[in-house]
Design goal:
Chain lengths: 384, 194
Amino acid sequence: MTRTLPVGYLPLVDAAPLIIAQVFGFAEEEGLDLQLKRAASWSMLRDMLDFAQVDAAQMLSVVPVARALGLGGGTVPLEAPMVMALNGETLGLSSRVAGLVAAPFGDAVAAGRALAKLGQPLRMGVPFAFSMQAELLHYWLERATGGVAVSIHTVPPPRMAEALLADEIDGFCVGEPWGSQAVATAGAHLLLPGSAIWSQAPEKVLATRVGWCEAEPDLAGRLMRAIWRACRWLSDPGNRLTASEALAAPQHLGVSPEMIDPSLSGRFSLGPEGDEGFAAQFLTFCDGAANFPWRSQAAWIGMRLAERFGLDVAAAQSKARAVFRSDLYRAHMAGTAAALPRDSGKAEGNLPDSAPVPATQGHLTLLRNRFFDGAVFDFADEGR
Amino acid sequence: MPSDISIIVVEKDQDRASRIVEALTAAGDYRITVLSDEAGLAQRIAELRPDVVLIDVASPSRDVLEELTLASGAMERTVAMFVDKSDPGITRAAIEAGVSAYVVDGLRPDRIKPILDAAIARFHMFSRMRTELATTKAALEERKVIDRAKGFVMRAKGLDEVAAYQLIRKTAMDQGKRVVDVANALVMAAELLK
């Protein structure tokens, strides 16, 4: 019997797993009819989840962790049974500031040095205070720019280009298609992909209210498997054009397919002059067990939030790691082709190249996992 | 007793804004400011230091307000806390009506309630008006399609208007379809055969 399920998303390229699951029948194969509800802001989507207008939603990976630490708005605790996308952020500058910054696209160290030489305070826009965009920006600015004064402001992504033109901000870190849109309409220059700061940053998760997956195990399992199959489909380069067209539709992202293709191909127009650049690991939907919600990813987010907001780091990490429910992922993905790692945590930042790790059956391959400064976040896994 | 509560209404549409202000004025003696421009919103709100901010649930600028819940340095007072902390029931009612409220930390619930009640009632009215407008629009569209189908049947079969409509209605009843669906099919076929 087909069951209907209301799910929420924001019009971003990385909402693709939910949209593709519904449009190309992966949900139907699981006997699911996803009612896709588009929200206009992260606060709105969070409220829709809190007040059960949707049962699951695409969500910024940082939001459920922040909630567990008592930061930000919202009413009920959330959790992440699955990661939907790694990376996919672009960092860019207004044409005025970009003219003063000489650095090759994707070189986080050189870009940091160039900003340090500017000797003037910078105003950067991010979509939400609790987002991987904000985390990556803080992480990079603290380590690469020699203490340049930077203020970070929330700017709704559809307004990012306008805010650049109005001189409200000097640059941004935002999810696609809004970086490419800022290049096309506001003369912005792309400086870095988010993957140049951390090549395996968990960007979006599937979020549910705590307890929903246990109360509705059948629905949760169908949903997670449908999303995983959509992610696998998205990771096939042969499906890129079809995916761009489907996502571009007016009821979903409502932009031209040309604005979507860069994030799927990794090839970007870097500025109004039309220079092209390639970003490795720009946006990962499936490869390297990307959908597995590693406890170590949540712990990293917890540590960063704790440091910035003055909370106890050890306590925050322990609360955070419980938010990424690798146990639920294991339970619902068992019996599919999804590879399950033996451990639920890993050292983040210690893979200069793809490498095999033990899986529950044989091995699975993890992708290159590096922070731009070579740091390693070593996470002691205390079981599943 | 005059109230010392200041309210910011974030609303682009002037007509809607003035209706909200009207409802709030009827509910109590508040200092009300309407901000219509999304540009520089965070800065304007920080300068005005309101006790309550009312904004459409579906406004993209809401995420800007979320940031203000964090911007509480030692010298500032907490700008705004989401109202859930005081009463989840009323927050739910507000969200369902389509308005979200950010309320300064420490404002007593009994002082917030009349403001929210007024806002909720007004937003319910907006959503009714939206539904009505959509229904009227749809009805007009249906009328247009049925008129075009009638014209087609009149020309093709040499019938007068009443007979043409009766034929379309009978066909719809026989097939268990709506008149507008049959009319749509006719119009589509007519376009193809042009």
